Amino acid sequence: MCRCNAETIPAAYCHFITLGCAKNEVDTDRMRALLTRAGVVETHDVARADVIIVNTCAFLETATRESIEATLEIAQARADGAVSAPIVMCGCVPSRYGEELESELSEVAAFVPAQEEDNIVSVVASVLERARRPLESAAPTMASNDEVLRTVEGASAYVKISDGCDRFCAFCAIPIIRGAYHSRDSEAICDEVRLLMEGGVREIVLIGQDTGVWGCDFADDRDLAWLLEEVSRVVRPYDGWVRVLYLQPEGMTPRLVDALRNIPEVLPYIDIPIQHCSETVLARMGRTGSEQELRELFAHLRRQIPGLVLRTTGLVGFPGETDEDVERLIRFIDEVGFDYTSVFAYSREDGTAAAAMDGQVSEDVKIERAQRLTDVAEQLGFSSTAAHLGETVDVIVDGVEQGDSGVELIGHAWFQAPDCDGAVHIESGEATVGQKVRCRIVDAFCYELVGEVVSDC
After folding, report:
1. CA geometry: angle at 5 spanning 3 and 8, to 5°?
2. Which residue of 60, 69, 144, 199 has the fewest C-beta atoms within 10 A of its own C-beta?
3. Which residues contact 353 (CB under 8 A, 6 or more apart)?
4. Alpha-carbon distance 258 to 295, whole Å?
5. pTM of the predicted model as reported, rounded to 2 decimal places
6. How far apart are CA 4 and CA 234, in angstroms?
7. Closest by alpha carbon to 412, among 402, 397, 390, 392?
8. Domain ranges of the chain
9. Strand partners for 54
10. What are the φ/ψ torsions at residue 312 (nearest 5 degrees)?
11. Does the domain at residues 392-456 carry the CATH identifier 2.40.50.140?
């Protein structure tokens, strides 16, 4: 869905491998669009590629290891003669580990930190030239930093409204990897949203490391509530949805709560990663708040926003965490009754404050605690999913699949964030990707729902 005037010249083929979160998916799509504009053609066949781009994640040690292993697998395939394309490693791993990678990963032709990914065309051109595979089309210069290019073709699209983080939570390497918090300009955001809606997207998911403080680095009084109104004006003619992820408790201002309640296009779905509820653990994490404050916050949000769906994140096994702390967190998650909860075991990350703390918890204990919290989270999630039985809701179609019994439509309702909260399966009916259909929910299993089409919207 790339919107550009430049002629596409199929001079070289590029294969993309993306690891990590939705923010990395957005970054890959940005690089894909820039390269497409320069005449590079994407291929899903790695053996056909002239260049291979690996967009890496380094948020956790496991993610870093996965990124390096994926790169080394491609390098081994090159050594075996199965592929011949040079490798370009992008994203968080080069951002976090910098120059030391050049000596440790000699198999990689170029390293591109996340902050330099807008230069991907010149990097690829240089790599292809060294590999004697010149990029025949001229690499155009971006007209401005605000020029929008995306290639999304599905029904939902992530849009980054900020990058970096100033919180410096003791367990988190994001400030090391992505740097200081900076809001993206509202005009660039709205231009991107407009392009996506014109291309068939019907849900915009706003993301960033800390979406709730968008605008805090501007000289004026623009904030996330203001931005939601601006984005909603763009999606309104397309009957679109707007969803916000990665809010922090401190970001839930009265203005933002009013916006979430009063703007029709903005879904009453809030994702607030609390990590923990113990005041002692939160303080060691470098986070503010207490169990009582969090209880009051979520009770207030439910009073203010009818039908609110809540997602959160729990982190267990942090240094110094006791059995009592874990029991408090499990009880808190259960009693607040979150609709969706992601559970993580603490990972000791080099360069973070927590890595040097006393009271490190053993891996076996972390796994056991994570499983106990997961059991409660799943019980709540399955119950919340089943609570929608009998409802008639709008479902955005994300895909059309051919099964043994015929065509099945797969989509998601307003209370399901794409790619993380399950889906609605519609076993009969006709629709295209991006279309809304009116469905009655007739069955539920785990996080999945079954719907029957009532009528097209």
Report:
1. 90
2. 144
3. 168, 170, 286
4. 19
5. 0.86
6. 20
7. 397
8. 12-130, 156-386, 392-456
9. 17, 89
10. -145, 180
11. yes
Spatial CB neighbours of 236, under 8 Å, sequence gap ≥ 6: 265
- Which region holds residue 368: left if phi is over 0, alpha if psi is between -120 and 50, else beta? alpha
Q: What is the DSSP string of 196-231?
A: HHHTT--EEEEE-SSGGGTTTTSSS---HHHHHHHH
Q: Are the CB atoms for 70 and 35 separated by under 8 Å?
A: no
pLDDT in tens, 111-170: 999 889 989 999 999 998 887 765 554 444 333 344 546 778 889 999 999 999 998 899
Residue 402 to residue 317: CA distance in whole angstroms: 43
pLDDT digits (tens, 9 = 90+) for 175-228: 888 889 999 999 999 999 999 999 999 999 999 989 999 999 999 999 999 999
Query: What is the DSSP code string of 82-106?
Result: S----EEEEEHHHHHHTTHHHHH-T
Distance CA 409, CA 432 (A): 9
Of 411, 113, 165, the C-alpha closest to 273 is: 165
Q: Distances in Å between the alpha carbon of 285 and those of 37, 279, 281, 297?
A: 44, 10, 6, 20
Q: What class, spelled out in words, does domain 156-386 have in CATH?
A: alpha beta
Residue corresponding to tokens 């390096």? 68
